[in-house]
Design brief:
Blueprint lengths: L3 E6 L4 H12 L2 E7 L6 H9 L4 E5 L5 H15 L4 E4 L14 H29 L2 E6 L3 H4 L5 H21 L4 E6 L8 H7 L8 H5 L10 H11 L22
Parallel strand pairs: 1-2, 1-4, 2-3, 4-5, 5-6
Length: about 250
């Protein structure tokens, strides 16, 4: 029996796929959304093979019409959405003085505006149910800063601030909003592209050894925190940054 329905963005691989598969283990039906619907089929197949329920969805999260269409498809297929994991994002490495308006706008439009659009489209379902979980995936660089990533850092800092605003506005309606700023996570498309970029200022090994837990993060590290935040056990937790970062940033 389907108890809850979740939408996970950027879920074709990496953190998003890990979160989708973990939530499905808790009998949550999953909308697996990514830019290319076909790429979502592997995550859907993994969920179904484990006895779960999932549907593949394609949308550019910075495009409101595409998001609205995808959410309607999920709602019609599986029911109202009460768990949202905003994970989809893009990144890049550009020295600040070389950063173009276009590069700045592209990253902000996906990472921050896309999170805004998806959340705004999904929220009416949560309001109608009087229960909801918004879980945004940011980045530890929003807490520490990073060279050559002003556009990405700014977008993820905006996601942290947006999460707090959502927590305050919608807490009285039974909806929590929290943010997870992870450290570098292995096996994601974004991380592999990052370390193939010659403007990446830090070696992979140096990031992994930044400690105090001296290893690369894994998608399941983030997925475990997401599953807890999505549960009834986290009903009194909202507006918080849950730093799944191996201690890279301690506050």
């Amino acid at each position: 029996m389907i108890e809850k329905v979740a939408l996970v963005t950027g879920a074709a691989a990496g953190i998003g796929a890990g979160c989708a598969e973990r939530l499905a283990r808790d009998r949550v039906a999953i909308g697996v959304l990514d830019l290319d619907e076909a790429r979502c089929l592997r995550t859907v197949a993994n969920i179904e093979a484990a006895g779960g329920t999932a549907i593949a969805l394609g949308a550019d999260i910075s495009n409101r019409a595409q998001v609205t269409q995808a959410v309607a498809k999920l709602r019609d297929s599986l029911g109202p959405i009460t768990i949202l994991v905003n994970n989809a994002a893009v990144t890049g490495y550009v020295p600040f003085l070389e950063l173009s308006d276009e590069q700045w706008s592209t990253v902000l439009s996906v990472n921050l505006t896309g999170t805004f659009i998806v959340t705004q489209v999904v929220l009416p379902d949560m309001i109608a149910r009087g229960w909801g979980r918004i879980i945004n995936i940011a980045s530890s660089v929003a807490q520490t800063g990073a060279k050559h990533m002003a556009h990405y850092v700014s977008s993820k800092g905006g996601v942290v601030a947006l999460t707090r605003a959502l927590a305050v506005e919608f807490g009285p309606r039974g909806i929590t909003a929290n943010v997870i700023p992870p450290r570098f996570i292995t096996g994601t498309i974004m991380s592999e592209h990052s370390f193939a970029n010659d403007k990446q200022p830090t070696a992979r090994e140096a990031l992994a050894e930044a400690g105090p837990i001296c290893r690369e993060g894994r998608p399941q590290d983030v997925a475990g925190a997401v599953a807890w935040l999505a549960s009834d056990e986290a009903a009194f937790v909202t507006g918080q940054s849950i730093s799944v970062n191996g201690g890279r940033y301690i506050s």
